[in-house]
Amino acid sequence: MDDLQREDNQPQSPAPRKKHRLLGLVITLVVVLAVVMLAAYRDGTGLDVLRRYFRYGSSAAVETTGYTYEADSSNRFGLLGDKLVVVSNTMLRVLADDGTEVYNLPVSMQSAALSVGGGYAAAVDIGGSELVVVDQKGEVLTLTAEEGEPFLAATLNSNGYLAVTQGKKNYKCSVSVYDDKMQLVFTFNSAQRFVLDAVVTENNRSLAAVTMGQENSEFVSNIVLYDLDDTEPKADFSIHDGLVLAMGQVFGRLAAVSDNCLTFADTSGEIRATYDYTGQYLREYDLRGDSYAVVLLNRYRSGSVGRLVTVDEDGEEIAQLDVRSEVRSLSAAGRYIAVLYADQLVIYTQELEEYAILSGVDSTKSVLMRSDGSVVLVGSREATLYVP
């Protein structure tokens, strides 16, 4: 009898509890994988669900600890991996999402602009003499323009190739290209036309330069193409009666955003498609999504009645959505488009289906979409991360 009592009083084996924990983990993984497979089958976003789950956890949240910085009307923002770059006319800062400052660099600019791509961020003083390129660890390139040769633009492609446009004595201007090691690999001087901007194509072999001129009493934007091993232009194409605002690529084709159309061309200078919105007012645009461009078109010069449109490389509408609220900011990355309205943030897929909605965004000034579906909400003094 005593032996039986001693056996009953022995501690129970922890094996059942371990089995329960293991079973719970298996069930959780099965549920997550089921959600992933369903989303992947529906719209291709499943892998992003999995990425966010393992990186941030399973629940949607606005992180209360985020990036902090000084309020400054000259602040410009960009994403450098999971870090935030903030450049003002006096300081460039790289911030980690736990609120710590990775490093800072004093700058002296009158009109700071920021371009991000390929693991680099390039800050340039438009019309001034200072340009600095940084990565997540620190400064990698500094350029100082000579007097009378101010910087006009600095644009990174997604592979980290940098095109620098600046004034040039005895010429209209010049363009220099730096490779992904920030080594100078190409320079040309333009004697005939002013170059407003330039970008290296995604195959890192060609340069597209945006020039401006007049033909038959109308303004013409001309896109001139160069191979990076030849200073003689290889091709060009024109966009009539429209000012090119930005250049990028959509699914391998050059994409030019002007005030009246999207123009898609190949790297041989052949125009392949056009999406025309003459008679409407271009309010916002972004070329950084995967294989699509997004534009916000208003019916009237003022007001909030308009359309949000995604367009493929063939100039065809993927989707459109009527908009009847003020849009304060728009940003695209990967499969997603973040639209900041006056009262809420909505994340759409490229088919303009609602993916996530966040209310309570009164203090948010702009948004930065990340390719995994998360969004950085930028305020005057702090930026927070929303994970759907």
Sequence-ordered SSE layout with sheet pairings:
Elements: H1 2-9, H2 15-43, H3 46-56, E1 61-62, E2 67-68, E3 76-80, E4 83-87, E5 91-95, E6 101-106, E7 112-117, E8 120-125, E9 130-134, E10 139-144, E11 151-156, E12 162-166, E13 173-178, E14 184-190, E15 194-200, E16 206-215, E17 218-227, E18 235-240, E19 244-250, E20 253-258, E21 261-265, E22 271-276, E23 281-286, E24 293-298, E25 306-311, E26 317-323, E27 327-333, E28 336-341, E29 344-349, E30 354-359, E31 366-369, E32 375-378, E33 382-387
Antiparallel strand pairs: 1-33, 2-33, 3-4, 4-5, 5-6, 7-8, 8-9, 9-10, 11-12, 12-13, 13-14, 15-16, 16-17, 17-18, 19-20, 20-21, 21-22, 23-24, 24-25, 25-26, 27-28, 28-29, 29-30, 31-32, 32-33
What can be said about this structure in brief?
This protein has helices at 2-9, 15-43, 46-56, and strands at residues 61-62, 67-68, 76-80, 83-87, 91-95, 101-106, 112-117, 120-125, 130-134, 139-144, 151-156, 162-166, 173-178, 184-190, 194-200, 206-215, 218-227, 235-240, 244-250, 253-258, 261-265, 271-276, 281-286, 293-298, 306-311, 317-323, 327-333, 336-341, 344-349, 354-359, 366-369, 375-378, 382-387. It is mainly β and 388 residues long. Helix 2 packs antiparallel against helix 3.
Structure description:
This protein is mainly beta and 388 residues long. The protein has 3 helices and 33 strands. Strands 1, 2, 31, 32 and 33 form a 5-stranded antiparallel β-sheet that branches. A hairpin with a 3-residue loop joins strand 4 and strand 5 (91-95). Helix 2 packs antiparallel against helix 3. The longest helix is centred in the first third of the chain and has 29 residues, at 15-43. The model has no long low-confidence stretch (mean pLDDT 88).
